[in-house]
Amino acid sequence: MKHAIIEKPAEFFKKEPALKHYDSAYANFSWEDYRKEIDWLEEGKLNAGHEATRHCSDKTAIMWEGADGRKKTCSFNKVNAESNKFANALRGLGVQKGERVFLFLPRVPQVHYSFLGTLKAGAIAGTLFSAFGLDALKDRIGHSEASVVVTDTNLKKRIDEVCGNMQVCKDMPALKHVILVDAEDDAGDALSYNKLVGKQSPEFKPEPMGKDDYAFMLYTSGTTGKPKGIVHAHGGIIQQKLSARWVLDLKQDDVYWCTADHGWVTGISYGILGPLANRVPLVLYDGRFDAEKWYSIIQEYKVSVWYTAPTAIRMLMKAGDELPAKHDLSSLRLLYSVGEPLNPEAVEWGLKVFNKPFHDTWWQTETGSILIANYPCLPIKPGSMGKPFPGIKAAIIDDEGRELPANQEGNLAIKPPWPSILRTVWANKEKYEGYFLKEWFTTGDRALCDDDGYYWFIGRADDVIKTSGERVGPFEVESALVEHEAIAEAGVIGKPDMMRGEIIKAFITLKDGYKHTPELDEDIQKFVKKNLAGHAYPREIEVVDSLPKTSSGKIMRRVLKAKELGLAIGDTSTLEN
Ligand code: WTA
């Protein structure tokens, strides 16, 4: 192996890890043993929002810093009281159990308050990335039939643009209330968060929920069709809590920084639920990526556990080793990564610069929590995703669901159930059922497992794109592209990129009368940013005379990708042109 195994002597991490012996924990594990972690509200009933807020104290829970440098801290008491107030406000608005409440917000503490308050009230919280554009909002708020959206004055403009002046918004027909976190007074059809929530009682009796009752949902992309609403249930909290303790090794005197946005699953499971359920203070930074700023945050807040993504790590690497040397980063205890393959060089760079390796973790929106990981107590094989979490049976299977031997590439699969597994795909039973093959949950990832039980990521089995760790469906981008007046047809692929993992590349054909110019490219990119999302536009656009299609007219992305990479095109028996 080119990259040496990283052994970690006991004194390496300053503190003894909570999970000390992986093999025995894995061998003897039973979820039943962790029932006592939960405050059962009634026989068999719990509430994930309550689990994350029931440890009331004056201890700091959230250290927030805005993009403009404003700062605020709030205690566990405050998170509890504010989420209770929000739950009361929902009750006052007549929001029923199971109704959808969507959060379209920058990274502000109201995300935590309203997310947890929604769960406490028994409604379903949906989160949206603030870079989402008009179509992305329609496909999520409209499709889920959300009745409440919590947003701010600036982001609301996009909702207004979708809805126009309609009394009842055609594309978001169930939407009844828009709540603005930054408005002091009700403004037209929108309610002021401060006025509405501020007057509520800080006491609230959390709704007792079954472990399979829905708690939150996130739309994510597949190869085909519109984004899927992945729905998670209250029972997942036990796994979010335990994995935050055993993988991230969060302890009550840590300061934890998860750089993910709440619009992605990491920002929920490990930006809200996992750390708060373990009573761990967290940093919430609303600014964009900036190497200098990021190091300053670690220094200023004395971050001890840091969970980030490979693209960010590679950008830090690019910014050079002098910058971290100028900061006091001695508070760092453990470093973690998720979302896309973490190259061995990045793991080793951590060791060089922070004196700590990055621990890679693997999971998906659908799995609800980390399922494969590198643990503090285990040596790291740089480039490997690590080993299954206790209670999780992972395997490499063939297309018929047969388990494959070690060292053989195949489909990464997990044996269901586990507490945080998705419970459904919103209004799409077929997509939900499509995840399962015989006794397996299929992940869509290709991987192999070595003789020591370490898993190695190989690639996606489908066309899903991972750009800067963000999951983008080619179909969504293609749909946005063909709405542009100049574009006749579009095929979209993920093109390998040293920094971002992949970039989105679009192959397009133009309508008669349009010529390919740099201005047109720019206009197309702007158009996709506005209509779909700030992060989902094609960084590269190639105009072609025609696109490879099957006889039924489907664009063959596989052929586009092979051509782009200079690879053999493979089986083209169904190719039309
Ligand atoms: C990819 C993110 C390689 C993978 C929490 C997976 C990874 C998809 C890793 C899920 C990793 C995630 N190494 N690839 N450590 N972690 N992925 O739903 O393809 O945004 O299926 O969830 O990201 O992305 P999602």
Structure overview:
The protein is an alpha/beta fold. Helix content is 28%, strand content 23%. Strands 2-1-11-10-12-13-14-15-16 form a nine-stranded mixed sheet, with helices on both faces. β8 (214-220) and β9 form a beta hairpin. α5 (134-142) crosses α6 (153-163). The chain starts with 21 loop residues before the first helix and ends in a 12-residue tail after the last helix. The structure holds 5'-O-[(S)-ethoxy(hydroxy)phosphoryl]adenosine. Residues 220, 264-266, 338-342, 360-365, 385, 443-445, 457, 460, 466, 471 line the site of 5'-O-[(S)-ethoxy(hydroxy)phosphoryl]adenosine. 5'-O-[(S)-ethoxy(hydroxy)phosphoryl]adenosine binds at residues 220, 264-266, 338-342, 360-365, 385, 443-445, 457, 460, 466, 471.
Give keywords:
single chain, Rossmann fold, 577 residues, binds 5'-O-[(S)-ethoxy(hydroxy)phosphoryl]adenosine, eight-stranded mixed β-sheet, alpha/beta, GMP Synthetase, Chain A, domain 3
